[in-house]
Design a protein that fits this description.
About 75% of the residues lie in helices and about 0% in strands. The chain has about 140 residues and is mainly α. The radius of gyration is 17 Å and the shape is globular. The N and C termini lie far apart (about 60 Å).
């Protein structure tokens, strides 16, 4: 882990310079290295940039670092990224897991996102069944 690169990324994050955060993360850790705080910051920045699939992966990477903790928040963020990427069914599963974390301080965020994901899943299924009915 390169602490100096991480501090530069954190400074860019505080300035709202999301692209610089993502760019700096390449120097922060080696591939496969566990550093949950860096991956969490990267995921948040990717969300701000609208790069939702990449954000979901960054949160997944952060979750691998069990020492970092923040499991509920990371799962909530990952679920929100999946929902924004149009992957509602995966989002439902991840957000449901977020609500299982007894240490998660803000479960209402996961509950709101879960409701949106379930509604989106239901709408997709409704569209599918309507289209299936018209294909004779």
């Amino acid at each position: 882990m390169d602490q100096q690169a991480f501090e530069a990324a954190r400074t860019a994050y505080q300035r709202g310079d999301w692209s610089s955060v993502v760019f700096a993360m390449a120097a922060v850790k080696d591939p496969g290295e566990l550093f949950g705080a860096a991956d969490h910051l990267k995921g948040n920045s990717l969300m701000k940039l609208g790069r939702f699939d990449e954000a979901a992966q960054a949160y997944s990477d952060a979750l691998r670092d069990e020492a970092y903790g923040k499991r509920g928040a990371l799962l909530c963020n990952q679920g929100r990224a999946l929902l924004a990427a149009g992957r509602s069914q995966e989002a439902v599963e991840v957000l449901t897991n977020a609500l299982q974390d007894p240490d998660y301080a803000t479960p209402y965020k996961a509950q709101v996102a879960l409701g949106a994901a379930q509604l989106d899943t239901w709408r997709s299924e409704e569209r599918f069944s309507r289209n299936a009915e018209t294909d004779l």
